Amino acid sequence: MFRNTQNRLTLLYSGLLMLFLILFIVVVYSLLYVVILKNQERELKSTANEEARIIENYLMQNNHRELKGIGNENLVLAGVDQFFYYLVSPEGQLIIGDEIIPEVRSDLFKLLQGWVPKHQEIRKETLEVTFSKWGPKGKGKSDELRSPPEHHEIHLMMTGRPIFYHNQFIGMLYIGKDISFAYQLFKWLLFILLGMAVLFFVVALYISYLMSKKAMVPITQAFARQREFVADASHELRTPLSVMLSSINAMEMTNDKEEDDFLRKLIFNMKNEVKRMTKLVEDLLTLARSDSGTIELLNKTFDFRPRAEKVIQSVEPLAVSKQIHLHLHAPETLIAHGDPERLTQLLYILLDNAIKYTPNGGEVKLFLSAEGNELNIKVQDSGIGIKPEDQDRIFDRFYRSDKSRSRQMSGHGLGLAIAKWIVEAHGGTIQVSSELGKGSTFTVRIPLSGKIKRA
């Protein structure tokens, strides 16, 4: 129980730390992404405005009414980190232009074809190029291939500016900037941040484990003191309860049968209450010892059929008093492995619980079988059933779905908790299926390997 709680606390602490780290990574990455790209956009817009102004001033100074012929004149446009620039006539004819990689001119024109940029519009494109590096030409020699073809992915940021002469549109200037380095930077930054996240997760997990372990110390100590108190108190209560029961039995034997009914009822009620308290103390002591691991379970091979028959005989008077029909379905010989006394106690708890919650005239069936490598125990009743929301909690200590009815039936909410401990101590599972008004079925599966977990 404490281990599971500590594990949940560890996951909770580490999850919160990782949540803050992930938020930090997202904020930092997004901030850098926006800042760097915005800075590139700002530089590109500034370059485009400056070069458009240079062209328009050149046209005004030289009294050029159109762009044709300007390409043969001494006009140089080369911005910083500029991948290409093209000056295009209204008919789409290239007047002047240049690019860092001449092989991609046709691909660039395909990207620009039909694009009329809006005011301050920025366009991002990815260009897939394949080109080779050639050696210099020699006299009488052909070009020599210096390296195999290289495949590149170029990330471009492009914009355009219209060119006017006396408020008349005469052409378009396109400018592109290579921002592949920025994408590469984002890629490596993402790898670095993810690596830091993995490293931080390991550190956060370790720190969370230490924090949860420290947080569990006072809880563990308090539970240990409570467990010791329950065990000591249960042990100390056994003796006076035994003395009281013996005294009541002696009073019952010496009582004159002809005395009034009041005294007989008083003795009867006292005896029942002492028995109920004795059963409660025994259950508390069993659970306290199971928590502390002081109970040593036996691991024997035995025939389970005779013990099941004895349990049926033991609970039969209670069933007869309620006109409940008991049925045992089991093979003549059923070899089981485990602690005979505890498995017998398991049958008694399940049958007693079924009889108590079955109305008069009902049925309780016990099925025993060995299927594969498992011992199967099924207790089926036609009782009142269990609510769906209570089915997951009926194995909790002191839990009773109907407290008033449980008190009337002398229930303390410990029987099924002990049953679950017995099953789990044998490495098995216990499940319940129920429907209100139609009864319940408890199914137990215990491995026949003979392995017993330490209590």
UniProtKB/TrEMBL annotation:
Entries under Gene3D superfamilies matching the protein: 1.10.287.130, Histidine kinase-like ATPase, C-terminal domain (3.30.565.10)
UniProt domain Histidine kinase: residue ranges: 232-450
GO molecular function: kinase activity
Regions that span the bilayer: 12-36, 188-211
Entries under InterPro entries matching the protein: BphY/WalK/GraS-like (IPR050351), HATPase_C_sf (IPR036890), HATPase_dom (IPR003594), His_kinase_dom (IPR005467), HisK_dim/P_dom (IPR003661), HisK_dim/P_sf (IPR036097), Sig_transdc_His_kin-like_C (IPR004358)
EC number: 2.7.13.3
Chief place where the protein resides: membrane
Sections of the chain in a coiled coil: none
Subcellular location: Membrane
Keyword Transmembrane: yes
Reactions accelerated catalytically: ATP + protein L-histidine = ADP + protein N-phospho-L-histidine
SUPFAM superfamilies: ATPase domain of HSP90 chaperone/DNA topoisomerase II/histidine kinase, Homodimeric domain of signal transducing histidine kinase
Keywords attached to this entry: ATP-binding, Kinase, Membrane, Nucleotide-binding, Phosphoprotein, Transferase, Transmembrane, Transmembrane helix, Two-component regulatory system
Highest taxon in the source lineage: Bacteria
Protein name per its UniProtKB record: histidine kinase
